[in-house]
UniProtKB/TrEMBL annotation:
Organism encoding this protein: Teichococcus wenyumeiae
Catalytic activity of the protein: Preferential cleavage: (Ac)2-L-Lys-D-Ala-|-D-Ala. Also transpeptidation of peptidyl-alanyl moieties that are N-acyl substituents of D-alanine
High-level lineage: Bacteria, Pseudomonadati, Pseudomonadota, Alphaproteobacteria, Acetobacterales
GO BP: cell wall organization; peptidoglycan biosynthetic process; proteolysis; regulation of cell shape
Full protein name: serine-type D-Ala-D-Ala carboxypeptidase
GO molecular-function terms, A-Z: serine-type D-Ala-D-Ala carboxypeptidase activity
Length: 388
């Protein structure tokens, strides 16, 4: 495990503005070892610092624990209302650890255990779920690591389901983003759990560990974590967050290694507010929209509309727009041309910086003209090429 020296400080020198050109507003100073902020609609990390730095996840580990449980339920190996038994191993959960006060032999439904796992970060819930899914913690941890590898989390390794520190227990901000996006894709129902302000089961009642849930109505999870070695970590999801130009934004902020609970919450809020105000969503390429009309020699149509087949949305610095540059493979194409034929390339630019590229295609068919006109066009085209 590699740790940065404390205090944790302002890592603007290592900062990466992944989607923004040089004139974007600089992000706030974040007192963390590693962080990033991501825009779901644009599919871009808007800003980051040390986002591939290995760091102890602490209880953020439980996100992977939950993901493996969700897979087991989806595959029919467990049921949400299925009661499972707390194993002997829950005895080793210490008094200083967060827990649901489970005793060996207690029986609880899977759903209640997952809620306790994610809302209040109960370590005994993690151990019980691991036993229910795989029989032993060791077998469950093997599944966690296999799942991490499958999701592309190449900077991650787990050695327990709870987040107990260890030299081979680590992750990165980018890997936690991959896991969050896997929840978005595979198990979006997780947010019905992680947005809950408190957890109640029978006589047990406790407030959620995520303080942003009570401060920002857009926040719907996901998880906090803390150990002495890791500092204070958080993965925060926000939906329909008010942003620049009246746009609502779907964002993820991940902060690892802040020095206090207060700084953890403040840092996540700063990044969400920065992403919402410093950037706006722009459709830099629009599927099916006519970009220009192109003369097609020898065609009955004379001209056809050209454009792109797929829409590309990006987060651009507030107050800026993209420009388009079109390059033709053949400046004087000859009919016939099918709809969808690639005729060149379109680039979305800010200054000389290329934001996106896409093939320029025919948005309509160019059918052959009657033979006299077709012949005249062909002769004219040859003369034009010879003269040029």
């Amino acid at each position: 495990m590699v740790h940065l020296p404390r205090p944790f400080f302002f890592l603007l020198a290592c900062l990466s503005l992944a989607a923004a050109p040089g004139w974007a507003q600089l992000p706030p100073a974040v007192p963390a070892a590693s962080w990033l902020v991501y825009d779901r609609a644009a599919g871009e990390i808007l800003a980051s610092a040390n986002s591939r730095q290995r760091w102890e996840p602490a209880s953020l580990t439980k996100l992977m624990t939950a993901y493996v449980v969700f897979e087991a339920v989806r595959d029919g190996r467990l049921g949400w209302q299925q009661a499972v038994t707390a194993p002997e191993a829950v005895r080793r959960v210490g008094a200083e650890e967060t827990r649901m006060y489970l005793r060996p032999g207690n029986r609880l439904p899977i759903q209640a255990l997952v809620e306790g796992l994610l809302i209040v970060s109960a370590n005994d819930a993690a151990i019980t779920l691991a036993s229910a899914v795989a029989g032993t913690e060791e077998a469950f941890v093997a599944r966690m690591n296999a799942t991490a590898a499958r999701l592309g989390m190449t900077g991650t390794h787990f050695n327990n389901p709870s987040g107990i520190p260890g030299p081979s227990h680590y992750t990165t901000a980018e890997d936690l983003l991959r896991l969050t996006l896997a929840f978005d894709r595979d198990f979006p129902q997780v947010y019905a759990i992680t947005r809950a302000p408190r957890f109640t089961f029978q006589q047990f009642r406790k407030e959620a560990t995520n303080p942003l849930l009570g401060r920002n109505a857009s926040v719907d999870g996901l998880k906090t974590g803390h150990t002495k070695a890791a500092g204070y970590n958080i993965v925060t999801s926000a939906r329909r967050l008010p942003g620049a130009a009246g746009q609502e934004r779907d964002l993820v902020a991940i902060v690892l290694g802040t020095p206090s609970k207060a700084e953890r919450a403040r840092s996540a809020e700063l990044l969400l507010n920065y992403a919402g105000s410093a950037f706006h969503l722009a459709e830099v390429l629009s599927a099916g929209r006519e970009l220009q009309r192109l003369r097609v020699h020898g065609s009955a149509e004379g001209e056809i509309a050209v454009g792109v087949e797929h829409t590309k949305q990006m987060a651009l610095p507030a107050g800026t727009e993209a420009q388009l540059r079109i390059t033709l493979n053949e400046p004087a194409p000859f009919a016939p041309l099918p709809r969808g034929a690639v005729l060149g390339q379109v680039e979305a630019l800010q200054g000389e910086r290329i934001l996106a590229r896409a093939p320029l295609v025919a948005l309509q068919e160019a059918s052959p003209a009657a033979w006299p006109l077709r012949l005249l066009d062909w002769v004219a085209l040859q003369v034009m090429r010879w003269v040029s």
